[in-house]
Structures are given as structure tokens and as C-alpha cells.
Amino acid sequence: MHIIEGAGAWTAPREGANDWVEQLRVPNMSVGTYCIPAGGLDNQSPHTEDEIYVVTAGRARIVTPDSTAEVSPGSVIFVPAGEEHRFDDVTEDLTLLVVFSPAYGSRTGRSADPG
């Protein structure tokens, strides 16, 4: 067992940036927190891993090529590997608990910022 301290908690990003912190990494999954300040831009690229977002704070819209949805605390979003997606119209500081499976970057050799 491992308690993941700080997962899903807001961390103020440096000015003009978003913040990604990986808090757990094992071969078959990784867990981290992604924070986007109100009015911020999400410029992430599609990932090679499946991904689940759990909104722990804030409000925004998630946009994919096929749909758009409003998200708020308690929203759970599944994004399959390779699907383009971004958070748009961030009206309140957005905090996302993120689970990648397998671990982020394990299919490409990357392990840095997924944003």
C-alpha cells in the first residue's frame, strides 16, 4: 500500500504556465496532479497512454475533435491514448487528478511534463 500525499491538490503554477506533478509511478500506471490557473491555456498534445482525469477543483470545458463538455468538481473524464484533447475556458483555477495507464511516457520513453 502507498498513500499518495498531495494528489489532486491545487499548486499555484509559475506565472504564464500550468503545473504538472507526478506523485506515483509504477510500470502499469502513473498518478499526478495537473493545475491550470483561471484564464490559463492548456497546450497539451495527445498522449500515447490512456488517461483518466478527476476534477478536484475549478471549472472549465474539455474539448476533443468529437465533443465538448463542461467539467467541475467530481467530473471524471476518460481520454483514450492518441485522442486530441485540451481544457478550454478555464473560469476557476482547475485542479485535476490524472491517472495514466500504462505509466506516462512508457510507450515513448518520455517521463517529463505531459502538458
Automatic annotation (TrEMBL):
Residues 34-100 form the Cupin type-2 domain. InterPro entries: Cupin_2, RmlC-like_jellyroll, RmlC_Cupin_sf. Gene3D superfamilies: Jelly Rolls (2.60.120.10). SUPFAM superfamilies: RmlC-like cupins. Pfam families: Cupin_2 (PF07883). This is Cupin type-2 domain-containing protein.
